[in-house]
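Quick question: what would this complex look like in 3D?
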Amino acid sequence: MEKLLLLGDEAVAQGALDAGLSGAYGYPGTPSTEIVEYIQRNPEAAERDVHRTWSANEKTAMEEALGMSYAGKRTLVTMKHVGLNVAADPYMNSALTGANGGVIVAVADDPSMHSSQNEQDSRFYGKFAMLPILEPANQQEAYDMPRLAYQISERYHIPVMIRLTTRLAHSRAGVKRQKILPENKLHKPEDPNQFMLLPAFARKKYRHHLAIQEDLEQESEKSPFNLYQTGKDKSLGIIACGLAYNYLMENYPDNTCPYPILKIGQYPLPRKMVEKIVNECDEILVLEEGMPLIEELLKGFLAHHLKIKGRLDNTISRDGELTPASVRQALGLAKLASRDIPEVVAGRPPALCVGCPHADTYKALNSAMAKYGSGHVFSDIGCYTLGFLPPHRAINTCVDMGASISMAIGAADAGLFPAIAVIGDSTFGHSGITPLLDAVVKKANIVVTILDNDTTAMTGMQDSQVEGKVEKICIGLGVEPDHIRVITPLSRNHDENSKVFEEEILFQGVSVIVARRPCIHVYSKKTNRS
Amino acid sequence: MKKDIILAGVGGQGILSIAAIIGYAAVETGLHLKQAEVHGMSQRGGDVQSHLRLSDKPIFSDLVPLGAADLILAVEPLEALRYWPYLNSDGWVVVNSTPFKNIPDYPETESILAEIAKLPNHIIIDADKTAKELETPRSMNMVMLGAAIPFLGLDYEKLKAGTAFIFGRKGEKVVEMNLKAIAAGYEFSENER
């Protein structure tokens, strides 16, 4: 069949589509966004009417996917690594409810934090939930894995994770398509109580889940994605997971690596293969993109017996993504000659775009806050986090989706005045509504600024769930209508807008200021689409 | 045949279009290709780069190793220097001399260009000016693609086809405009090197 040039993300999407996908769910988050976006613009997905609109957050996405699985169809739910924290409740419990139609949880991790607030490794969630994980090394595997994932998911009635990392998610290569599989027909679970987790059922299901672990290990032993490559020099054995395999092979052109290699692409770990390489070799080097999951497992707490090298002994840096150079160094090969960056080079951090509405909002906020000093503004996740940087210097925190409002409440509870929250419209829809309910119920003395630019801007202009609904939601939650103020962030409105901030800061109770002006990119993108 | 290329610029300057055209031409030539790009926060006016690897053998790493790049193609002079450690000992740098100043401490342009000129294999072209002279100011990136053609190891005709493919849906006029820009960059490099 035809060969397509696809990003790793797109390969997962096309792979799922060709393996009988009926519905994709997700919330945008770098580096995972392009999975659902690809399905949204794919003509075959449109023709089949595959579900493909965004969800309010990762938790609702995961649950919607479980519902589709309940009804017997194959589904895909996508998120970035920190999104899995939001979806952790349904994800952990889905290990016990299991799946009816196949479920793929595609999570894209961001080691080195290119566009994230931490570099957690989603494989730990897979291990925690005792669910299988597939970790592609290249775009072709990213395409092929959904097919196997659905087979395993439907054979054992459990969700399967596909774990990507930034460099594969956002790198393009040629992908060969396979035969297109039909979608499942609607069918309810054979066991009508499959998704019922009352304790008596849950205990039984948990024992069943423990019992199938051996079978899942067997699946890994025979997986086409776990490969044992022999090598003559047994002084070292190398375990390389996912993308790490590429950096290893890069350093031995034309397949000249002298050491045995165990390439891992499917978990739980294939115990027999791991035993083989450990018994055969004097030392083991573990190459993992992310945190030292396998290394810790092999080493154990006391680390008495085996010589295991990796991130824990600093053979490779404990943090940050792998690179061809870091793997080269770990292999003890000589560094390639290279130049230093000339001294003249200055850093170029990202910044709010010229004409961005957030810049005008921050200017007004700063002017109202001048008399109170700094350290009062709790912010959130989005383009507007760049308001921390000069020249704005307008915000003080960025923790997780929705934390701006909740943290402002806590700080106000402690007596901080003023306590200001700054949150984007999409982030408000994701996780800002519940803390605003808290604020209303306890009459917290806070000002919530909702930066409503009509879009999910940072990840590339996806639709915002709360578009056209922000004030109605605030009123519905019980915010006093007189203290829901809408401003238009433009420099010509600066004095007026500053005054609105000043007034609402002085109001004892919950105020919401909606700063509404579309993202400057949103019009061109929407015009292009229509 | 192996070409490791770093494409460098600032978010919004159009390096991904360059990558897409080269990618198209490489696939049409039957070469293996990997192209890693930056999405997300950096695209908001920060430094962005794309690693583009072409080879007649299978390619493993999505990233170009340090010291391995055959070419740095930079649409902005400061951004060329940022990737100096990637360049191999006889690699080429093709760079646009017009700075994009969106930071307060942007260095003197002369000192940047002087640093680039220390390298034996360099092409410095004022691609913004060339594009303006062609009355297509937005095709600066295509002038740069043209200037890089002598160092890509790809057939010019295939790159033209790639341009038609990538810009085709925007209409024939846009394709033609971009082809003109590519031709101007190409001519400059052929005369310079």
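Answer marked as accepted. The radius of gyration of chain B is 15 Å.
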